[in-house]
Design brief:
Layout lengths: L11 E8 L2 E13 L3 E12 L2 E15 L10 E2 L5 E2 L7 E2 L18 H9 L12 E3 L5 E3 L2 E3 L3 E4 L6 E5 L3 E3 L3 E3 L6 E4 L4 E4 L10 E3 L3 E4 L2 E5 L3 E3 L2 E2 L7 E12 L5 E11 L7 E2 L18 E13 L1
Parallel strand pairs: 5-23, 6-23, 7-24, 8-11, 9-12, 10-13, 11-14, 12-15, 13-16, 14-17, 15-18, 16-19, 17-20, 18-21, 19-22, 20-22, 22-23, 23-24
Antiparallel strand pairs: 1-2, 2-3, 3-4, 4-25
């Protein structure tokens, strides 16, 4: 259905020849425009036939379903609150000042849980829900994704054989999630994909815990609505960075190795001796990440409607 682009555009008019034995004439007129982004339309649908007529008058609002949050990845660490650093943090956060340095009390747009849920749920809407609360790699290399789990989930390797779990699409989990905190070691290859945990659990319960039995490899995105405890071994360098983001909770960062990428949330940084948090030196490093970058999507709602008998 074509719609007028703005208030200056002429109405769009078309007809449907047979709806329950009646002819329907439809006229769409632009009613209001806000910053050339959100439009409201007046839709008049007039059905005639059998000597009678009915008109439906509806006002349709257009709004941003989700926005572009690429600016959130412009610094090594970002928080809407104060950042809790370990002592002498300037020695292990790069850069510690100037461009891309940590930003406290970030006031630019911040995505809501609802936006992210809507965005990532679209990517798994055709996936059969996973029926178990565990994934045991059991010494076998595996691919995962697109993947949907409605509930809690634990991913681990019960075998002494170090294997790789490679993401091949979005991994969406609604409940608290634990990856690599028990059993034997394995590698998690994000493969430019996203892990999204919709749980909003907070201290002491964590929405997402990536433990020291897991070696994580980028590039990719790790998001939870609630608290994240991020302590994997790192197999990621400047060319394969990771974005770790707690939407409304604490991002506690204690990786076993140098971290490259960006971290956001109410951030607590407590690194092991000799490790560091680094912002990638390559420009545009996050352009291909599966996040709300360079994307805006409009949706529509019926603000009001009325049936008029003629």
């Amino acid at each position: 259905m074509a719609t007028p682009c703005n208030q200056a555009s002429p109405p769009r008019v078309y007809s449907i020849t047979d709806v329950n034995g009646k002819s329907v004439d439809v006229t769409i007129t632009s009613e209001i425009s806000v910053n050339n982004i959100t439009f409201t339309y007046l839709v008049l649908s007039t059905a005639t036939g059998d000597g009678s007529g009915t008109q439906i008058e509806a006002y349709i609002g257009a709004f941003n379903k989700y926005g572009d949050y690429g600016d959130l990845l412009g610094q090594v660490i970002t928080s809407q609150n104060e950042i809790d650093f370990s002592p002498h943090w300037e020695d292990y956060v790069e850069p510690s000042e100037g461009e891309h340095a940590p930003v406290e009390y970030y006031s630019d747009p911040w995505p809501t849980a609802e936006e992210l849920i809507d965005f990532y749920l679209d990517e798994v809407e055709d996936v059969e829900p996973y029926g178990s609360d565990t994934i045991d790699l059991n010494g076998v290399d595996q691919d995962l994704g697109p993947f949907y789990r409605n509930g809690e989930l634990e991913i681990y390797n019960s075998s002494s054989t170090n294997v790789t779990l490679t993401l091949t699409g979005t991994v969406y989990i609604t409940g608290d999630t634990v990856i690599g905190s028990t059993n034997k070691g394995f590698t998690l290859d994000l493969n430019n994909q996203t892990i999204f945990v919709a749980s909003n659990s907070s201290n002491p319960q964590k929405a997402l815990w990536i433990g020291g039995k897991c070696t994580i490899r980028g590039p990719g995105v790790v998001i939870a609505v609630g608290d994240i405890y991020f302590e994997p071994n790192m197999d990621a360098g400047v060319s394969d960075p990771i974005f770790v983001f707690s939407v409304s909770g604490i991002t506690n960062v204690q990786p076993g190795g140098d971290f490259y990428g960006a971290i956001a949330g109410s951030v607590e940084v407590d690194l092991q001796p000799g490790t560091s948090v680094n912002y990638p030196t390559e420009g545009g490093w996050y352009d291909d990440l599966n996040f709300l970058i360079g994307i805006k999507k409009l949706d529509y709602r019926i603000d009001s409607w009325e049936v008029i008998q003629q």
